[in-house]
Please model this.
Amino acid sequence: MATNTETARTVEALSEQRYKYGFVTDIEADSAPPGLNEEIVRFISAKKGEPEWLLDWRLRAYHRWMETAEDTPSWAHLDYPEIDYQASSYYSAPLRDEDRPKSLDEIDPELLKTYEKLGIPLQEQEMLSGVAVDAVFDSVSVATTFKSKLAELGVIFCSLSEAVAEHPELVQKYLGSVVPYADNYFATLNSAVFTDGSFVYIPKGVRCPMELSTYFRINAANTGQFERTLIIADEGSYVSYLEGCTAPMRDENQLHAAVVELVAFDDAEIKYSTVQNWYPGDENGKGGIFNFVTKRGACRGRNSKISWTQVETGSAITWKYPSCLLLGDGSSGEFYSIAITNNCQQADTGTKMIHVGKNTKSRIVSKGVSAGRANQTYRGLVRVQGKADNARNHTQCDSLLIGEQCGAHTVPYIESRNASAQLEHEATTSKISEDQLFYCRQRGIAEEEAVALIVNGFCREVLQELPMEFAVEAQKLVAISLEGSVG
Amino acid sequence: MLEIKGLSVSVAGKEILKDFSLSVAAGEVHAIMGPNGSGKSTLSYVLAGREGYDITAGSVLYRGQDLFALEPEMRAREGLFLAFQYPVEIPGVGSATFLKTAVNAIRKHRGEKEYDAMEFLKVMREKRDALGISEEMMRRTLNVGFSGGEKKRNEILQMALLEPYLAVLDETDSGLDIDALKVAADGINALRSPERAMIVITHYQRLLEYVVPDYVHVLADGRVVRSGGKELALELEEKGYSGFTGNAEAAA
Amino acid sequence: MGAVSPQAARPSRSIELPYAAQFAAAREELPGHDLSWVTSERDAAIARFSELGLPSQRVEDWKYSNLTPLAKTDFTAPDRKAAEAARAEVAERFPKESAAGRLVFINGMLDGPLSALEELPAGVRVLGLADAMADEGDLLKSQLEAVPALNGHALAALNAAFMADGCLIILEPDTELALELLFVAAPDVGAVAYHPRISIAAGAGSTLALGEQHTALGELEYWSNPVTAISLGETAQMRHYKLQEESRRAWQTALTKTRIAAGAAYENFVVATGGRYARNEIKVVLEGAGASCELGGGFLLAGEQHVDNRLRVDHAAPDGTSRQTYKGVLDERAHGVFQGKTVVHRGAQKSDGNQLSRALLLSPNAIMDAKPELEIYADDVKCSHGATVGELDGEQMFYLRARGIDEASARSLLIAAFMDEHLQSVADQAAREWLQGAVSRWLAQHLSVGEA
Model:
C-alpha cells in the first residue's frame, strides 16, 4: 500500500532526529548514598530539618511500602524491567543548604544557562511574562520569584519544604489528605522519600493574578525524583498552575514518582496544566525516564472545579491518571490530554472521575498519538456513586496511529450506580490519510511539517485548554516529538 | 511553461492517459473537456504528483525542469497549483493557519521574507474580501463543514495567495450554483496575467462562458481527440461528447 | 536487602475449590470413560482447572463478577431418572413449533424421545455428545480437534473435565441446516450442575441457523456451564440466536468460541432475562480475510440479577468487520456488565470494528458497568466504540403522559422501543419475533408487578 511505504520511509527519515533537549549539566551535588532504608528516610527528613510529625508520616509510608509488592501496574499495558529500588539515590541537592541562593543573581550561571537551553530564561520570564517561577533543580528549590507581589494578596507560593517550616498547620492539615500515603505503591514510595515540590495556598475570594509555574529537571546521576506538590484553593478563589519538564539525555533508566494533591473549596477553581517532555530513551528504547505519577484533586466544596490539562510527550514509561474526586454538590472535573508516544515509548494514561456529590459534572477529552513501535493506552474510569443524582459525564477519546508497528488502546471503565446519571463515551481510531498529506504537500508544505500540522489539528481541542504561552510551547513539542516518528 | 509529450499513465494496471501531449505557454488559458472517466482528473493528479499513478511513457517539462523529478511540495513551491475537485477536510487545523503555513513555505522557497501573523492577516483580508469569504470562515477548521461553494472559493483564495505560475483547476465548477459560479469565475479571471498559465478542467461548457479559454481540448479515453479555440466548447455543448468519442474510437 | 519481588505479597487471584475430589469420584462413571483419550483429556482439564481455580475479581476479565457465592454452593451431578420424570411437563410447556430439527436437553442430558432429527439433509450430521462417545469415538475426536481450543479458561476447563452430554453439528461444504437446542432445568434432589458441550464445524459455503433456548421448570437453583465451540469454513454463514431465560436462582456461565475463515460471516444475538448470575462470554477470531461477525445482545434484569457480558473479537486477518452492540434494561438492584474488547492484530489492515453499549437504569439501585475496550496494532483501521448509561428520557415520558398514557404504560412503551430498535438488526424475521417475544414477556411480567 502506497501510504504504508510512504509512512515507513518518513518514519525512518525522521527517526534520525535526536532528542533536542538532551544535555547534562555538571553541577556540584550533595547526594545520599544509593539504597532505601529507614536511615535514608531519617536522613532526608533531618537534612530538611523537618518536624517530628512529618518524619513519623514518612516512616509510616516507608514501612507500608516495604510490606507492599509492586503490584499496581499489573492491569496496565506496560512492559518494563524490574526496577531496582536499592540502586537509586533518594536525595541530592545542587548546593549545600547554607549556600542556598537568595535571589537569581546568586544562582549558578551554568544552571541559568540550562534553563535558557530549555527555553526558560528565568530573568526574561520574570520581566516579560509576569510568570512566577518556582524552579526545582533536582530536588531542592533554587529560585522563587514574584513572591512579594503574591504575598500582598495573601497567596502562598513556595517550595513544600519552606511551607513545612513556615506554614506547618496548612501542610499538616492537607498533606496526604487527597492521596493518602497508602494509596498505591508509587505514592507510598513518594510519601517516604519525597524531597521537595511546590506549595500553593490561595486565600478566600482571591483570584491569583498570574499563572504559577514550576519547571522540573532530573539531573544528578542515579537520582530518582520524588516531587510532591500541594495546592489548596480556598472558597471562591482561582488559580492556574503550570508544570513543565524536560530532562538531560542519559542511558540508565530513571525513576520518577511524583504526587500532586489539589484541594478546592466552595466555588473555587484550580486549573493544572502540564507539559511533560522528559527524556524518552533513544530510538531503540535504551534509557529514558520511568514516570509513575499520582495526581488527584478533591473538589470538596460546592460548585468547585478542577481541570487537568496534560501534554505528555516524554518518558520511556508513563503511568499517570490525573483524577478528580467530585465530592461537593455541583462540582466539576475536567481532563484534557494529549499523549504522544514514539519509538519505543509506552504510556498508560488517563483519568478517574469519581462522582459523589449531586449534580456533579465531568468532561474527558483524550487525544492519543502513537508512532514508531510505541504502545499507548487510554485508561479512564468514570464512576457515579449512589447519591450522585444527575451526574453527567462526557468522554471523547481519539487515537491516531502513525505506522504499522505501533499500538493504540482504549480502556474506559464506566460504572454507574445512579439511575439519574447520564454518561456518554465515544472513541475513534484513525490514521493520517494519504489525501490529507497530499493536499498539504500540494500547497508547498513539506511532509514533516504537514504531519505536525495535522497532528496539532487533531489535538486542537486540548491545546485550546492550555494557557497561551504554554500552548505555543506545546505545539512545538508536538511537532518535535513526532519529528522522530511520522508519515 | 508546460510541455507534456507522449504521456501514458496507468492506475493499477489500467491505462488511463494514452500518449497525451499538450503545450501551454505563459499567459494562456487552456480548457480540457471530456466525459466522466476520460482521464481529466488523472491528468491533474499526475501533474501535482499524487501517488498511485504509474507513468509508463512520456515526459513533462515544467518551466524548463523535469516535473517528475520533483516531490509534490517542490512542484507547489515552484509555482504549480492544483485546485482540487474535492478539497480535503483536515479536522482541527484552522483554515488561516493552514494557508499561512503554505504561503510562508512558498515565500521561503522563493527567498522572500516570511509573513508574520499581522502581515499575513492583512494580505489575506484583501484577497478574501474580493471572493466574499468571511473572516469567520477562515477561523473554521479547514474544509470541515464547508458547503460546496465555500470549499471551491477557499481553493481560489489559496490560489490567489500562493500566486502560482501554472494553475490547474480541476472541475472547479462542479457542485456550484450560478451565483457561486460567477464569484468563482471572477476570482479566476482576476488572476489571469501574462506571466500565468491556467489549465481549466471541466465537464460542462458553463464555466467557460465566464472564464473564456484561449484553447479548448477534448479528452476522450485518455487522448486528445480535438483541439481548437473557444468555439469548440460551444460545438461540444451542441453535439455532446458522443460524437467526439465515436471519432476517437474510429481514429484508434 | 534486595528489591521487593513482585510475586512476594501478591494476593491470591482465585477461589480454591474442591471440584478435583468430585471429579475423582465421577471419573469412572462419566460417559466415554472407556475411551482412553477422553479420560486423559479430562484428567488434563481438571488439572488445568485446579491450577487456574475459579476466577476472582482480581482477574481483570472477571472484575465485575463475584463468584464466591457460586463456590459456596454444593452442586451435584444430575440424575437421569429425575430428568426423565420431567419429560411430560417439558413436552407440554415447550412444544416444538417450527419445522427445524430440535434437540432437547433436560438437566444437560439429551432427551431422545423429545428430540426430533429425522429430516436432516444430506451432508449434515447432528449427534448427541454422549451418543458420539459411545458409538463414534473417532469422529468425536477429530471434531473436537477441529474446533477452537479452550486452554487458559478456568470454566471451560471445568466443562472439559465434567462434560457428559451436548451435541456435535457437522456440515459438509455447501450444505444447509436449521436447528433448535432447548435446555431445560428440571427438579432434582439438590442443586445440579451440568456442563453441556456443543461443537460445531460448518464447512466452506455452508449455512447454519441455530436457535438456543435456556430455561427451567420453575425457580430452581442449579448451575449450567455450557461451552460452544464453532468453526466456520470459508464463506460459511451462521446465524446464532439465543434466549437465556434461566431461573432467577440459577447460575449460568456460558462460553462461546468461534473461529471464522475468510469471507465467512457469523451473526449472534442473545436476549437474556434469566439467571441470578449469568455470564455470557463470546470470543470470536476473524482468521481469514474479509471475515465478519455481528454480536448483538439485549438484557432485561430486575431483583438482584447480575448479567456479565464479556465479548472479545480478534481481527487476525485483513478486511474483517466486527460489530458488538449490547443494550440493557436494569431495574431494582440488578447489575449489568458489558465488557467488550476488539483486538486488531498487526497486519490486520482495513479492519472495521465497532462497539456500542447502552443501558437504561430504571431504579436508583440498579448498577451498570461498561468497559468497551480497543486494542489496536495496525494503523489502517476504522475502530470506534461508544457507551451510554442513563435513565428514561424525561421529555419523552412527559410527552406520552401529556397524551393521556399512564406512567407505567409510558415506561413500558419506551423500554420496548429501546429494545425493539436494537432487535431490528436481527436478520432472520422468525428469530426476531421469537426474541421479541421474550422481551414482551419480561415487560408484561415485570413492569406490571414492579410498577406498583
Summary: Chains B and C do not touch (no CB pair under 8 Å). Strands of chain B lie at 2-11, 14-24, 29-33, 54-62, 65-66, 80-83, 166-170, 197-202, 215-220, 223-228.
